[in-house]
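Appendix B. Extra example for self-study. Work through it before the problem class; the solution is given directly after the inputs so you can check yourself.
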Amino acid sequence: MKQKTISVLQLYPRDMNIYGDWGNVLTIVRRLEWHGYTPELLTYNQGDAFPEHVDLVLGGGGQDAGQSKIQDDLLKIGPKLHELAEADVPMLVICGLYQLFGKFFKTSSGEIIKGIELLNLETHAGNERLIGNIVTQSDDFGDIVGYENHSGQTFLADGVKAFGTVVRGAGNSGKDATEGARYKNVIGSYLHGSLLPKNPQVADWLITQAVRRKYGDFEPNVINDTFALKARGIAANRPR
Ligand code: GLN
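Solution. Structure tokens for the complete assembly:
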């Protein structure tokens, strides 16, 4: 161990944590250890005190009901999350929280669930659910594989770029071949599955940003990713 600690904050594990998103937390914790760093796992649920020090933020998806439930609390900690994002803290938020890092999610019954507007995008429930295995492509991350399941159709506006371009699947809206969004070191994505175990390049990117920001330099170890690569291969070739 390098005696260097990275504090990982999981947002709303009680209400926003579906389709295996917990795997993202396990992957970050385990890969930090494999790289010789000491992970400190923090969780934040409604009403908790927001931790003093955070190096990396993770958040998962949830049903519309879960999104409604956390809405008020999320708006309260919004300024804190903005502050961290502006200070280049890396974050990965999936599906339900991805939508609420944007301006709003308008449900099929017309309810507006407000977001924290960290990502310049908005989401409207569509008539069909966008479900299935998905592969996207990114200049920074290569192929990204996962599984999507959402009714929301997300539209990106100025200042955010897509996380990937859809090769197979629906992505943000099923209409413009974009998937997810990026702003500074924040990544939002629809990809469950979970995303990080099968996309170690994304996990290591998040870790690199967190470690460099805190300690100036990242000294990675070589990790045996045989199983992750096998899982990637299988996921990429599954029928939609
Ligand atoms: N309720 C949202 C939707 O269906 C988010 C779903 C999710 O997080 N998987 O669009």
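Self-check: Residues 18, 61-64, 67, 95-96, 149-152 surround glutamine (CB under 6 Å). If your reasoning did not lead you there, revisit section 3.
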